[in-house]
Amino acid sequence: MVKLFEKVSLRGLELKNRIVVSPMGMYSAENGCVTPFHLVHYGKFAMGGAGLVIVEQTSVSRHGRITNGDPGLWHDNQIDGMRQVVHVIKANGAAAGIQINHGGRKSGQQRVFRGNGPLTDRDIEMGEETWTPTGPSDVRFADGYSDPVPLSKDGLIGTRDAFVAAARRAVLAGFDLVELHMAHGYLLQSFLSPLANFRTDEYGGARENRMRFPLEVTRAVRAAIPAGMPLFVRISATTGSKAAGRSRTVSSSRASSRRSASISSIARPVGICASARPTLTSRAARATRFPSPIRSGVNRASPQEPSA
Ligand SMILES: Cc1cc2nc3c(=O)[nH]c(=O)nc-3n(C[C@H](O)[C@H](O)[C@H](O)COP(=O)(O)O)c2cc1C
User: In this predicted structure, what is the pLDDT of residue 269?
Assistant: First the structure.
């Protein structure tokens, strides 16, 4: 039986126990840079004894931010702040991971503590920057949100390269592990979802096509980080859409894609990707968390590396 306080090895990284603090956005960065708040916030989790602390979703581009308060790694001047966060986590005995993300059609919304909806005139008066979001298609996330501009082929390459550059900066900052955010309706998941991806090129349509861009990003990031560094991917196990019912699109494909992209762990929070505001009751969370066909391995870091 696996014990919570036993060590676990993932590629070249050994965790002192299996307690992982999952990434949680704090919406408190300034112009994409972390602040002393983040040092205290992440340091306290490490002091609490977790084996791994994963820093909140961090944007790979300025206009990929979910909110104006998201930290980023799209510029070299963001590395130093992250290095301090890494230092405070490691100095207190935990390993340091970071989740990198592009918000896609959900980017540019209110900070959660200011409403968690589309930006209002009041938010803009308060200084929040606005931009036109991008996505797989021109279908907006929900009423009130802007219509996204579908990513062109060049846009896909640029976005893939932004993930790679952010991952490299994470390595320079000293992180032990990188996680790709492929959940909650952000850009990579919206490519996977038939509720958001209506492309007619090789990146849309059949499931294999919808998986193409997320897998391209995954392989490019895997190739850019050290061989001994684990790469995690976070997916949504279900769409969270009543209209679509439970979608196992991603989960049922996880084993083959995990092998083909050399991923160390797939974590599955409850899914939020539909064209509806995320409403997550505890009942819904219970109902969607462990559907039996995808029960194995939920939120579990797998010590065994898949064969290449
Ligand atoms: C304030 C807050 C911010 C969150 N931010 C993120 C995030 O940046 N990235 C992410 O993948 N999940 C995020 N989540 C989801 C959590 O990581 C986690 O999955 C969720 O709280 C449920 O916990 P569980 O997965 O252990 O069941 C956030 C949750 C909360 C409460």
Answer: 61
